[in-house]
Amino acid sequence: MTGDDEDGTTGREDARSGTPTRASNVDRGDGATSVLDRLRALVSGTRFGQFASVGVVGAAFDVTTATVLQSLGVFPELAVFVGIEVAVVVMFLLNDNWTFSTEGRRGIRATLRRLARSNLVRAGGIAVQLATFRLLYRVFFVDVDVLGIDGWFVTAKVAGIGAGLLVNYVAESLFTWRVHE
Prior knowledge:
Elements (H helix, E strand, L loop, with lengths): L8 E5 L6 E3 L12 H8 L2 H27 L4 H24 L8 H14 L1 H17 L5 E2 L2 E2 H26 L5
Antiparallel strand pairs: 1-2, 3-4
Helix pairs in contact: 2-3, 2-6, 3-4, 3-5, 4-6, 5-6
């Protein structure tokens, strides 16, 4: 069916969930979606809220992993990078099963493709996060010790996470889960 049904769906079902797809998420028959449709798919308050909630969980894994590694003597930038990768995998699994659960195909092969794409897509957010961390930690260093933990390390890490959030949301929405299709 090419037009909208009375309930605003298209008559098509999502490949993973079997639920009807919304008209704003499908193409116009020529294989392309409009810019307006892409923007509508991005500004879903519910989806962004879920993405941000998953990000909080990811940030906890990220900061904890990086802080533990740094306290064990691992070079700070390497500790930060490992923390980021742990968070990327955790957040992918949560986003794939909650935030974007109605997007994409099921199956291990499709999931692994999305995970690989997610890592590639997040490269921009990772670069922003690492650059923010390095700038704050190395250039604007402040000696802050909180219960034996380098407080400035944690502060710079959290600031980097915040800077990468928007980049990652837009990139993940458009390229990993393709919410506009």
